[in-house]
Structure of ABC transporter ATP-binding protein:
Amino acid sequence: MSHPDPTAAPRTSSEGPPSLIRATGLRKSFGDFEAVRGIDLDVPAGEAFGFLGPNGAGKSSTMRMIAAVSPPSAGELRILGLDPATHGPQIRARLGVCPQEDTLDTELSIRDNLVVYGRYFGLPRSECASRADELLRFFQLQEKARQKVESLSGGMKRRLTIARSLINQPDLLLLDEPTTGLDPQARHVLWDKLFRLKQQGVTLVLTTHYMDEAEQLCDRLVVMDKGEIVAEGSPLALIREHSTREVTELRFGVGQHESLAERIDDLAERVEVLPDRLLLYTDDGEETLARVHERGLEPAAVLVRRSTLEDVFLHLTGRTLVD
């Protein structure tokens, strides 16, 4: 499958790949509400970069600025080396944008959704047709090419939406919550396609509130909370820096967690009290569990697992990603 023409991207410096997104002190306000509060970003070509955080963290507002459809309130922003305030159309012509909601044309066939969209970029009809067929094969939709959109499952509609966003062979693909609402199998199929796109040189920028999605897809990410970046790094580096190797989850009776936490808070590096369970952060979950039992405590349910980005977010903000 074709990937972006590197001659269209900003020039590569001797220090590494070019920066496709660069922001300094970026802010976005809606009246008195400041949705994005002075963030700095630098995303090089070829990277899969993520914004992780709950709804209302400022992820989508940031993506709209990067997509050159929402002007920054303050700060400096360059996309593909260009200023979106003066070169919006040129930037948008080189972007692929996959919104949260599917905006497919239900009156058209699956193939025509791609062909017609390609025409908006001024591509010849023959070029649109060949690119459409290539994308349908890549996203395993070729057998349904003549059917209407309504015949597709949710996962297939998302694949078609992403296929459509690639019709102009963009330098940069923006994905806002790409797998929200999909079942686990459909999410894994989509992750595979996005991973393959990255291998082919497509630069991905995505927002998500799924920790496993960020861990699977992102080379590097920022954790956002209340319009600010509270941490940045690779998924593994963030987990190593802000959490322990393992977590022991204990579930007791309703209303017992707060009082029981005081009896075991010396058994772990950190204990988090959630409404339905206790989280004990430790480097050896099984050993910690054994010591809990030694104190005469019998949880109703137990889970020993590795730390995830969810634990990083909880540590940094005091909230879970789904709050």
In short: The chain is about 35% helix and 25% strand. Residues 184-199 form the longest helix (16 residues).
